[in-house]
Structures
1.
Amino acid sequence: MTDIPSVPYSAVFRCIAGCQGAYPLDSLIYCCPSCHGLLEVSHDVGALQRLSGEEWIELFDSRYPARAGTVDASGVWSKREWVYPGLDSRDIIHFSEGNTPLVELPHRVSGLGRGWIKQCGHTQTGSFKDLGMTVLVSAVKRLRRRRPSLKAVACASTGDTSAALAAYCARAGIPALILLPEGKTSMAQLLQPLASGAVVCALRTDFDGCMKIVQKLTEDGHIYLANSLNSLRLEGQKTLAIEICQQLGWRAPDWVVIPGGNLGNVSALGYGFSLLHRLGLIRKRPRIACAQAQQANPLYRAYKAGRADVGSIVARNTLATAIQIGNPVSAPRAVQVLREFHGVVEQASEQELADAAALADSEGMLCCPQTAVALACSRKLVHVGVIGSEDETVVISTANGLKFMDYKRDYHRNDLEGLQCRHANPHHVLEPNLKSVLAFVEQLGRCGLDTNV
Ligand SMILES: Cc1ncc(COP(=O)(O)O)c(C=O)c1O
Ligand SMILES: [Zn+2]
């Protein structure tokens, strides 16, 4: 069953600070005209409440698994009434994103008593950004019919937003313009948008510098802004919370630990859990822990100082390049969400994240450095008793480890300045004959091979 119930659902943009005014989702607007603050997509919850929690569960479960090629095969669009109600299915650009695995997390990797890892990097472009980008690019497809003057879509990126934007735009036939901080993304992340045919500009600045420029670039309405300042992205990303609950049998875990940079994703996660709770699909909400790299930790600093105003810092270099952000644009949303979810903020040093990644890798879970920050923070939160030893915890893995091989190569060469590569496992170059391989294996005394055969 894939029919959309005939109840008319609707959503508009509204100011998160509560200013008056509602704006259609297909208006060219990114900030509140009154206070210049952030907007959110506000759903007609009354209309959604006409279905009971049980009926929503039945509807969502009926769409999973779905036949290939249908919009239900997307983890985002199978929840479409909660995402972008009324979007014509012909406008939907998707790669069957979402529906990513929720995998048990060995205690050794995270220190958690009952841990899961949500593998958001198992998707088309290798990160959770696909969840939001399918919504944004589909919205642009619709918008361009009415506004032919809208020439392209642009974003600033630490490497994953750009990969997603380029791929979805390639599929939609929409030009994409990308601003990256030069030398601060991995090789794979630089090549992804190039391969998809986007125009890529590497600027000699950091992410925050690129972000300022793209905001100016998109002001006059000819180029559409694809950063998560644009709250349409968060509507797709919030399906992450819905998927987690669906995979756990329609209940929430005790904790979710999620890496934070620009702080859009932690906000989206909260929006998802809020809606699930309000509409009666889950009985209790989880607590949320936002994990930051110590080198780029504006939210952690504000949290420790008890400040609601996150402000900005200059982010220092970190292996977790995708969260090397000093001036997070979604900070006000994230602060609201963390309050609502009785949240905490933790940080991880470079050594802690490198150790966490290597431990996860050694269990076959090839882990990106941002996910490693979340794993390291989970361990710390268990250690200090914030996360209880019996608490069920979901750690959000935000990207596929394969995107971050440059740093893993250096790790296994034991070549990361200032860090101990305790689990380095370098490869061995040998003569190309059986004798030298057997002699080597024997000398190693590992592998359990009977070398006398
Ligand atoms: C792999 C990865 N993890 C985490 C994040 C952080 O998400 P957000 O910027 O929404 O906080 C990003 C993007 O910034 C990312 O690319
Ligand atoms: Zn406002």
Note: Residues 15, 17, 19, 32, 34-35, 37 surround zinc ion (ligand 2) (CB under 6 Å).
2.
Amino acid sequence: MALKSFRDFMKEAVERYYSSERALKDFFTAPELDRAFGEALAEFLAQYLREFEKPALVELGAGRGILARDILSYLERNYPDILNTLTYYIYEFSPYLIERQRELLKDFKNVIWVSELPKVEGVIFSNEFFDALPVHIVREGRELYVKDDKAPIWLSLENERVKEFLHRMGYESLNQIVEVGLDAVDFLKKVSESLREGYHLVIDYGYTSEEITRFPEGTVVAYKEHKVIQNLEEIIKYAGGVDITAHVNFSALMEYGKDYGLEPTLFQTQRDFLMHIPTFLNELEKLSWEETAESVERLSRLKTMLVSMGDKFRVLLQRKMS
Ligand SMILES: C[S@@+](CC[C@H](N)C(=O)[O-])C[C@H]1O[C@@H](n2cnc3c(N)ncnc32)[C@H](O)[C@@H]1O
């Protein structure tokens, strides 16, 4: 009987899912809600990009390319000096999505697709990328595996790196499901090696160690046509044809980031993050005075970013210390 850890199973399922046309059907992100998100982010990023003579932006997992388009268009209109010296790298593993991105971004000459992170000065950032990285699932000394016939099975926890993670994060005595994102930790190392100087910005839904007990059954879910599947057996059954994700453990990103010289300099809810960016506030104010159907619709989308997504999504900025 062949067995795979849930981590290996999730890795394959996520890769299969994003390489197919399904990848455009099940997820719906803040930049896709309204351009105000990408514009606010561009305004925020511009303040950091200024520090560098030849800055780079590296976007991890660019989806349909909408966030890239909104950031580049905003810089073109408001900071042409920055855009003229900027290289925009996209790190993306889905050939299917790369094609969509190339088509959407064809008017921007400074966009480069990469399969390895380049050495840069600037900002590496992502929105809803880390939640797609696979996780080990453990519960009280046992780890979840998946059999050939897709039956889940709990076996004694033997993985030393997973044990070390539980110890370091103070999770050993928790009587609940805990997800261990070693791939996220490994990715931080890549980010750090890629940054000669600069910042790493993560926007995603997630939690901190203080909040972990709010998720006794863990946070892994699958999205199928915008419906959420929470039952692990069902998630495993549909794997490959559904978007499987895990909430991001921001405490782990902060803790392990320090091993690679990534110092947390800002950690906020998405709501607080957006409410501190003048571009976003101005848009909110402008829309609230207008009475066209489109403005009312847009105002409600901006509110979604602040209210239903506002607390669930977090923003972490890490600075690479040389
Ligand atoms: C939910 S989408 C987010 C898209 C976009 N950032 C947005 O906010 O609309 C996740 C993206 O990350 C990419 N992705 C997921 N795991 C990846 C990996 N291990 N390496 C490279 N890209 C990955 C997917 O193909 C997809 O483009």
Note: The mean pLDDT is 95.
